[in-house]
Prior knowledge:
single chain; 0% strand; elongated; methyltransferase activity; transmembrane helix; membrane; transmembrane; methyltransferase
Amino acid sequence: xxxxxxxxxxxxxxxxxxxxxxxxxxxxxxxxxxxxxxxxxxxxxxxxxxxxxxxxxxxxxxxxxxxxxxxxxxxxxxxxxx
Length: 82
């Protein structure tokens, strides 16, 4: 996945909300998830695209944003051969 730290933090907060049966934590999870989704798509990823150009575009096209791939992807192999 392209954003493992954000996914990890979101998973932890969601797990805490479920374990504690807390609507407050669930609301915090929803607010934080919304903020992260907007910030990543509007700030972080465009910045990475400008900095790394076609390499980032290829990476972005082959690696999911939030959830891990079932099969690994290797940049040295052509797309679709894993």
